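In keeping with the milestone schedule agreed at the kick-off meeting, the structural modelling team has produced records for the first pair of proteins. Each record is given below as a sequence line and a structure-token line. The laboratory manager (R.T.) confirmed that both were archived under the project's standard naming scheme.
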Amino acid sequence: MIEWTIVLKSAGLYLVLTLIHELGHAGGAALGGVSIQNVGQALLPVPHFYVQVEPFPTAAHKYFFFLSGPLLVILVMVGWWAVGILFVPSVYLAGATRLLLDGNPFFSDFTKMIDDYQYTVAWYVHLAMWGGLTIVVARYCQFIVASTGVR
């Protein structure tokens, strides 16, 4: 049975985490001295928000920019864990969804960060690890909802 209150709360928190993710990219660009050209949203290949920057002067700037979004989300989630709300079902579902999308091997910051990454051996290892993590998170979501009830 779907608990719509959890779904709606999770959707709202997911949008907040998406904003935090993009603010992480903007902050990473600013700290790295890379000019931001545009901030917006696009519908293809999937609906998403983005921060577009000028060409990166070095590979280190590129890595810093692409990792700054997911790392800020992780930092926020560590904060949620520290104050004891990470395992509230709606919070956990929103955070887990954001991290699974941030780490997916098909359309994520990782696929843009490394040139010619898709369909390499490293990509297949990434795919297998991500698939396993997806299963673990899905099972844990079921456990949290069943053991704690709706909050």
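The second protein of the pair:
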Amino acid sequence: MGLVAPAVRADTSSQTLVADATSAPDEATAKQIAAAYGHDVVVSSEESPTIEIVAQADGLLRLTETTEPVRAQVDGQWAAVDTSLEEDAGMLRPAVSAVPVAFSPGGSIAPLAEIQAPSGQWVSQTWKLGALPAPTVDGTTRPTPTCCRMWTCG
């Protein structure tokens, strides 16, 4: 018969167990998860379209700040900005955008373009010189129709 070692119960009274996750609601929890599981954890309460704070396994925090939005809220969750144009409600819209914006798919549909201000109101640009040709959409690119090139910069 082999030797049987006596059972030893570890003292966990001073340790708080946390579930593994890639994000946490606050800095303290993010640091705790990062240290316990050895990977980066996003501090979700500090996230914005241009800011991300990450707790690292070594106990330090890393701030990443961008000059333009790289994420946007979609149904209460952060999603990476995706400027691929999709048809929606008769307009072309980016799949995920930090600022709501839409473009005419051509023809006589007005407005030519619209953007939503922080107040919630829409600002529109109309075209009163006849029907526009339908654009050729290539992923994130909507080439300017010949009729509008006088406004193209660069």
